[in-house]
Design brief:
The chain is mainly alpha-helical. The chain has helices at about 1-35, 35-55, 60-75, 75-105, 120-135, 145-150, 150-175, 180-205, 220-245, 245-255, 255-295, 295-335, 345-360, 365-375, 380-400, 405-430, 435-460, 465-490, 495-550. The protein is globular, with a radius of gyration of 27 Å.
Amino acid sequence: MRTRNSFVNFLANTGSYTINLILSFVTRTIFIHVFSAAYLGINGVFTNILSVLSLSELGIGVAMNYFLYTPIASEDKKTIRQFMNLYRVMYTVVGGFVGVAGLCLVPFLDFFLKDQPDIPGITFIYILYLANTVVSYMWGYKRAIIDGHQKSYIGTFYNTIFTTTQFILQIIVLLVFENFILYLVIQIACSIATNFVVARKANKMYPYITEDRKDFPSKEVRKKVFKNVGAMSIHKLGDVVVNNTDNLIMSTAVGVTIVGMLSNYQMIQASIITALNGLFGAFTASIGNLTVEEDDESVFRVYKTLQFLCFWLYSFCSVGFMVVFTPFMEAWAAIAGKPSTELVIPMTMLLVFTANFYMGGMRRVILTFRDAMGLYWYDRYKPIFEVIINLVVSIVLVLKIGAIGVMIGTLVSTMTTCFWVEPLVTYKYGFHRKVRHYFGLFTKYTLTTIVVGGLTYYLCHFIDMGGILEVVLKVLACTVIYNGIILLLYGRTEEFKILWFETTKLLKNWYNRRFKKNADEAVEGQAEEVNSEAVEHIDDTEDKTTEDKE
């Protein structure tokens, strides 16, 4: 059941990602055509400001999800309700704080914008971004109980519906009205609708969570929760500062134009990360359940398999970035009617951008197991050093070499802290094994990425005709060359065999449920029809015999 739920969650996330990627690309293309790069820069700056304010969330979501694993596994409804009530109160406080703190920053917006762009109503636009952030805390916590039951595909389904609606309405607004404010209002409305519908679904599926809204965990349990939230808040600090201050530093020191250029790369990267996170996120609740019910050896076997899958996916995407990004941006600029200089960043900047993506991706499985096991207390001081290193190196280098210095600062802070601390904690306290196993895996996988990726890049550079055709051919060539070599190198490993076995088993089960069931029903229907005809024939024969006798 655990594996099947993970597979269903993965399929739902993949479908949602595909739809959102296509629509977001179309929307962004029209956006680039209608508005200047300054609007993209403003989007990046305001989003990062509010991400920093969201630090007040303190990692509540991750910590509370951990506490829900055990009562959900044992179907302890009372404990689940108590944690959900505590979850609601904590998120209400956070949403209120973000709203008030965000309003207090209004007088200081000019500080974050070195070159004041010629955009009317910047303050009101910022308030709309603030409103969109605040409403994300309305009912959003109820998604946790659905995800905890390994049914994240339900939330994904509703999210896909409203996100699709959002993109379609935004496209209409861009084409007909060319109004940026109305564009943002649609985004806020769809965000509220998504959270509201998911919350109603959670109430319907698990009605006991609404029975007593004043029933909270005991004082001792709350103390333990706050302890873990406190530890997780420091991790949240590191994530927020490292991932959301780059654009702020760039806009303050260099200007919003470079932020706008990078935002296009970040949008595509974010779409890919969303898809990959959907894959690994589909396993998160299952991993939490796994760590509760299974032994260390089984847990470690699953970890190794997922780490191999993580390497394969992130390394392939990283190589794809280097091969495809530049010709793709050139073709995109032509479609949007803009010069390529407004969209394409230098190759050196792309290399550092890709390196940050790869390093962040290779941490994904380790962090998933650390969070599922509730081990974030042991490396609670790591983010402090990560933040200090990131800010110091980024500020020093941006003044010397420009925007690329900020990206190098992120890479340096990751390599000097997260790279070794996170696996050390997870291996020591979670897997109870020596961490040298991880570093051996990382070295092997990274060398493979560099060598095979370099060969793929070299072979693909001979495809040079420009336009969409070049992009398509390079995507196909990169996919075949890189993945073909990876299969040759790792096709006989235990991790690949487990992946292959589990995938084929799930596909067979899905096929049997979908098609064999229908076939069986058809056969049963035919049999019933034959039996019915036979009975009618016998009845007719008996009637005829009776008539003859008469």
